[in-house]
Amino acid sequence: MKNQEIANIFYSIADILEMKEVEWKPIAYRKAARSIESLSKDIEEIYKQGGQKELEKIPGVGEGIAKKIIEYLNTGKIKEYEKLKKSIPVKVEELMNVEGIGPKKIILFYKKLKIKNLKDLEKAAKSGKIRKLPRMGEKTEENILKAIAFAKRAGKRKILGYALPIANEIVSKLKKLKEVNQIQICGSTVRKKETIGDIDILVTTKNPKKVMDYFTNMEGVERIVAKGPTKSTIVYNSIEVDLRVVNPNSFGSAVQYFVGSKEHNVVLRRIAISKGYKLSEYGLFKGNKKIAGKNEKEIYKRLGLKWIPYELRENRGEIEAAKKNKLPKLVEMEDILSDLQMHTRYSDGNNTVEEMVNACKKRGLKYIAITDHIGQLAVAGAMTSKEVKKQRKEIEKLNSKFKNFKILQGAEVDIKLNGSLAADKKVLKELDIVLAAIHSGLRRGKKEQTKRILSAIESGYVNIIAHPTGRLINTREGYELDWEKIFEAAKKNNVALEINAYPTRLDLNDIHAKAAKEADVMLSIGTDSHSVEHLRFLELGVYVARRAWCEKKNIINTLPLNRFKKKLGI
Ligand code: DGT
Ligand code: CA
Ligand code: CA
Ligand code: ZN
Question: Is 179 a member of any domain?
Answer without folding.
Answer: yes
